[in-house]
Structure formats: C-alpha cells, structure tokens
Amino acid sequence: MQVFVESVGLLGPGLSGWPASRPVLTGVAPYVPGEVPLPSPDALPAAERRRTGLEVRLALNAGLDALVRSARPPETLASVFTSCCGEGHAIHQICEALATAERVVSPTSFHNSVHNAPAGYWSIAQRSQAPSTSLCCFEWSFNAGLLEACAYCLTEARPVLLISYDLPYPEPVHAVWPMTGTLGAALLLAPRATSASFARLDVQTETDARAPTRMQDPALEALRSGNPTGRALPLLRALAGPAPERLVLEYLTDSAALVTVTPC
After folding, report:
1. How far apart are CA 217 and CA 20, in angstroms?
2. Domain residue ranges in the chain
3. Domain 2-196, CATH
C-alpha cells in the first residue's frame, strides 16, 4: 500500500505538538519528559466539554495538532481511531460505582466508557458526518490502525485522519497492565501526492517476526515499548528527518509491518 502524509500531530511527555517534537525525535534537541496538558477542545459545545474524559481529550488534541497544518476541511475527513486501552478512567469509575451498596452508575461515565467515544466527540467538534472506524488490537493497536487507515484511504480514494491514543489505567488495573506515559499521535494520509504531501509511505505486512525498529534515546525507547501508541515513534522520527528510512513495526506475535518512508 502506498499513501502520502500531509500532516502529523503528536502529544506526549516532553512532546508538545509536532513542530516542537521534530528536533527531539531526530536527536537535534534533548528529550526532556514533562507533563501532558489535556485541555478540553474549545470546538466542543459547553455541555460536551464538561463530559469529556482524559482519553477523549488526548485523542482530540492529537488530531487537532495535525489539523493545524492542514488546509483540508475537517468535516470532510474520514477517520480511524485506535487505542489499546480505550476509556480506562471511565471503566474504572463504573467499577467503583458497582462496588458500592447503591451501585449507581454515572450516565456520563457510561456514555464515555464505549470504545468509540472519542470518535463521537470528534464528529460533534468538527460537525462531521464522514465515516469513522474505532478499533483495538492490544499492544499492536497503532499498527492495526495504520493498516486500516491505509486500506481505507486507497479503497475509497479519499484522505483519512488516523488518531492513536493511550494513557495508563488507574490502579488496580495499572498493576496488571502497566503503561508508560500518556501519548497521542495523528497522521493525515492521502491516496495521491498533493502540494501538502511531505512524505510517501510504502506499507506492507509479512508473517516473519523481525526485531522492531527502536528509538536510540533510552527514554524515548521506554515510551515506545511501554505505550501501545508509542509504537508510532520510529515512524514519526523518520517523518521528522530528511532521509528515506525503512522501518519494522511490531504487528501481532508472528508478523511485522514494514514501512518505507520517502520524503517528497
């Protein structure tokens, strides 16, 4: 599959938007982890802003970071949302409520608990009726989302916005499935080269497990290996650099996604 990248969004510890993150990913600037602000997007009506959880805010802010550098009308963009852990904080609130004698579940928590909640809030914020897919593939969720977005982009011959987001569960689930950091990433993909395209992706899969491409910085590598959306970091590093690069991204236990990044 061959698609073209028109813009990128990134939000994580020490990665405050794509322009500021590029020199960090390429090693020009040091990586200094920090807090990840998750404001509720102003594009949402006031009632919806009050209901948003952390996962929704992470996904929407990552997507909005990509749209800042795109001239495409956001309401026309198809989207693919992918996350390993989905709405962990909403699920935690529901479980806490069910453990009480009253067992009264907050309607907002229930509303936010479904896996496609960010996609719903996104459609409201952008006033969009464009197609959207929400999926999960455990720790390989980013790569599953990338393959889905590329396939949709080409079969439907239309641009697609891919948004991947993951942040740690609260305890006690965090002790069972520990995760490193809070990370959201977005790619705006197009089926054909345009004046906005800055890189071409050639993507394929193979059923031959290979060692994945890693990050050279130890802290960024910990984020890559410890957060499912972190599997996007080698691809984002290649997109931030000036040279072609061939990457191996983990996908399922016995497969890999091979991605060649070629600057346009």
Report:
1. 17
2. 2-196
3. 3.40.47.10
